[in-house]
């Protein structure tokens, strides 16, 4: 075992998950390169420990303490490849802060990920969820993902076409535990059209000529909109949007719209995507708080841990919200974050 690998026992994870759930890991190690990662995997195998790979801790709920080895990905580095007059490929190691990478690209004049500003987490976690906001998804510009195959312990490169991207979905969710993401490559443009079609962004930019906008200006607009609506996890612990916007068929939508003419929706190919925040708000949950957890008073999609709640407290509230929406609208909400431990 390399002396560079420092494994902690009974380590607190409260500061490593944005819900600030007070849980511990039986073992915790931080890895800074692929060699250390392989050593950590070997150690876990030799000691018969389960493994949890952790990025920014912004898209999971700990339902209890973790009994195995938590591997915190701290691989850092960013660089440019294939630079020409039209664009370039931005390479991000898995531990790079996602928001900082967005601003780095935007300040450099590259377009493609500016609408994804202020999404918490790391670059390595971004493809798992196929993060998205304001008309943009990571899969729109992802070129490839470099991974460690846990079965073979070999490094592989997966093109975007192999990642099975969908709405908040990917190969990495379908086959959990098979791949550990080491770095991602994003194909960005110098001149692609900027996306400001979402109402919040239209309202923010007003009559500004789109041709006069830069990717940094769009990123700053997204940041301003998100700051107005979403709480900072460092101030009010949360994992961002807790539920996906449900997608339903046209017959079900017509029936729903007949009962609720003001229902907020977006066309999604041959189906309809409903605004989960509207459903939750109309079910009476926006601003709700019990003694430990609640629903944010400006964005009903966000569950907050305002007074030291546990993961079970959050999940119990989520179940109540889901059941309420199902009873009122006949629509099933699906959670965005993953659950670690027994729910």
Task: Explain what you see.
The protein has 343 residues and is α+β, with helices and mostly antiparallel strands. The protein has 3 domains: 8-73, 2-Layer Sandwich (Uridine Diphospho-n-acetylenolpyruvylglucosamine Reductase, domain 2); 78-229, Uridine Diphospho-n-acetylenolpyruvylglucosamine Reductase, domain 3 (2-Layer Sandwich), CATH 3.30.465.10; 238-340, Uridine Diphospho-n-acetylenolpyruvylglucosamine Reductase, domain 1. It is 26% helix and 27% strand. The protein contains 9 helices and 19 strands. The chain has a 5-stranded antiparallel β-sheet with strand order 6-7-12-10-11, with no helix packed on it. It has a 4-stranded mixed β-sheet with strand order 1-2-5-3, with helices on one face. The chain has a 3-stranded antiparallel β-sheet with strand order 13-18-17, covered by helices on one side. A hairpin with a 2-residue loop joins strand 15 (265-268) and strand 16 (271-274). Helix 5 packs across helix 6 (215-229). The radius of gyration is 21 Å and the shape is globular.
Rounded mean pLDDT is 96
What is the rounded Rg?
21 Å
Q: Can you tell me the overall shape?
A: globular
Strand order of the biggest β-sheet: 6-7-12-10-11
- Please bin the fraction of helical residues: 25-40%
Strand content: 25-35%
CATH C-level label of the largest domain: Alpha Beta
Number of alpha- plus pi-helical segments: 9
Can you count the beta strands? 19
CATH architecture of the largest domain: 2-Layer Sandwich
Distance N to C terminus: 35 Å
Total separate domains: 3
Return the CATH topology of the largest domain.
Answer: Uridine Diphospho-n-acetylenolpyruvylglucosamine Reductase, domain 3
| Largest sheet data | 5 strands, antiparallel
Low-confidence parts: none
Order of helices and strands, N to C? EEHEEEEEHHEEEEHEHHEEHEEHEEHE
What class would the helix/strand composition place it in? alpha+beta
